């Protein structure tokens, strides 16, 4: 992860100083949206970071609430994505849902560089990026009930049973996350690991603020493209499970 950028001037219209005191329990919490891993940067990714980063990568500014209309220059529904990987699906969705704005969080620099390349190639203006832990961005920069949707696609399944507790989709995290989704907004998760899908269904189904849009697992929404990895898995007979829940009004 890169060093945290300096805070912007107070007059920056894209952020608003928060008067809410930080909960000590949040500072001590161990929830993380990522796993540290190494990755090499290609020359195209390096160039994209240098040339496009200043425009599309937002600084993490604790306790300053992001104002999406100031960032994007328009009023539009905002979708927050946790862990966009190399960004191909993110770019395709943003192109498909051009009337929505997208905020993606990814700590791994090669992925950030790759998404910036997609943004340039597709000439997208409705994506911004935080190269920072999504949990901290949500808690410290995203206003309550402000998001139209949240996407969490193929998070680390932590296959070994003793590591299951490290999975992102846990009751405590979901309870915090839901507060940032507007009433009627949605949470869309997808995984190719069936035991994790079962856990997601159980955890999301137990959250009082959410309701399932399907009987159990949802049909893949048309806006979510199939990834190369997913296509390969489907050809091998592997399953993929989508879960789409809405925040109750």
From TrEMBL:
<keyword id="KW-0489">Methyltransferase</keyword>
<keyword id="KW-0949">S-adenosyl-L-methionine</keyword>
<dbReference type="InterPro" id="IPR003358">
    <property type="entry name" value="tRNA_(Gua-N-7)_MeTrfase_Trmb"/>
</dbReference>
<dbReference type="Pfam" id="PF02390">
    <property type="entry name" value="Methyltransf_4"/>
</dbReference>
<feature type="binding site">
    <location>
        <position position="106"/>
    </location>
    <ligand>
        <name>S-adenosyl-L-methionine</name>
    </ligand>
</feature>
<feature type="binding site">
    <location>
        <position position="192"/>
    </location>
    <ligand>
        <name>substrate</name>
    </ligand>
</feature>
<comment type="pathway">
    <text>tRNA modification; N(7)-methylguanine-tRNA biosynthesis.</text>
</comment>
<keyword id="KW-0808">Transferase</keyword>
<keyword id="KW-0819">tRNA processing</keyword>
<dbReference type="GO" id="GO:0008176">
    <property type="term" value="F:tRNA (guanine(46)-N7)-methyltransferase activity"/>
</dbReference>
<comment type="function">
    <text>Catalyzes the formation of N(7)-methylguanine at position 46 (m7G46) in tRNA.</text>
</comment>
<dbReference type="InterPro" id="IPR055361">
    <property type="entry name" value="tRNA_methyltr_TrmB_bact"/>
</dbReference>
<comment type="similarity">
    <text>Belongs to the class I-like SAM-binding methyltransferase superfamily. TrmB family.</text>
</comment>
<feature type="region of interest" description="Disordered">
    <location>
        <begin position="1"/>
        <end position="25"/>
    </location>
</feature>
<feature type="binding site">
    <location>
        <position position="156"/>
    </location>
    <ligand>
        <name>S-adenosyl-L-methionine</name>
    </ligand>
</feature>
<feature type="binding site">
    <location>
        <begin position="227"/>
        <end position="230"/>
    </location>
    <ligand>
        <name>substrate</name>
    </ligand>
</feature>
<feature type="binding site">
    <location>
        <position position="81"/>
    </location>
    <ligand>
        <name>S-adenosyl-L-methionine</name>
    </ligand>
</feature>
<feature type="binding site">
    <location>
        <position position="133"/>
    </location>
    <ligand>
        <name>S-adenosyl-L-methionine</name>
    </ligand>
</feature>
<dbReference type="InterPro" id="IPR029063">
    <property type="entry name" value="SAM-dependent_MTases_sf"/>
</dbReference>
<protein>
    <recommendedName>
        <fullName>tRNA (guanine-N(7)-)-methyltransferase</fullName>
        <ecNumber>2.1.1.33</ecNumber>
    </recommendedName>
</protein>
<feature type="binding site">
    <location>
        <position position="160"/>
    </location>
    <ligand>
        <name>substrate</name>
    </ligand>
</feature>
<feature type="region of interest" description="Interaction with RNA">
    <location>
        <begin position="162"/>
        <end position="167"/>
    </location>
</feature>
């Amino acid at each position: 992860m890169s060093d945290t950028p300096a805070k912007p001037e107070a007059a920056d219209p894209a952020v608003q100083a928060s008067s809410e005191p930080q909960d000590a329990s949040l500072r001590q919490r161990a929830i993380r949206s990522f796993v540290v891993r190494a990755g090499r940067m290609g020359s195209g990714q390096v160039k994209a970071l240098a040339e496009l980063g200043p425009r599309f990568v937002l600084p993490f500014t604790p306790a300053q609430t992001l104002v999406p209309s100031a960032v994007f220059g328009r009023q539009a529904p905002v979708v927050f994505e946790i862990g966009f990987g190399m960004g191909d699906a993110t770019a395709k969705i943003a192109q498909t849902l051009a009337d929505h704005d997208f905020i993606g969080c990814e700590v791994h620099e090669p992925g950030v560089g790759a998404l910036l390349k997609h943004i340039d190639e597709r000439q997208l203006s409705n994506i911004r990026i935080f190269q920072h832990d999504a949990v901290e961005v949500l808690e410290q920069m995203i206003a309550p009930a402000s998001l139209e949707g949240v996407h969490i696609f193929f998070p680390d399944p932590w296959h070994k049973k003793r590591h299951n507790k490290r999975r992102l989709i846990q009751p405590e995290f979901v309870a915090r996350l839901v507060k940032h989704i507007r009433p009627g907004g949605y949470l869309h998760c997808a995984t190719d690991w069936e035991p994790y899908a079962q856990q997601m269904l159980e955890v999301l189904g137990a959250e009082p603020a959410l309701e399932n849009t399907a009987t159990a697992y949802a049909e893949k929404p048309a806006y979510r493209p199939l990834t190369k990895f997913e296509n390969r898995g489907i050809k091998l007979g592997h399953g993929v499970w989508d879960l789409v829940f809405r925040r109750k009004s």
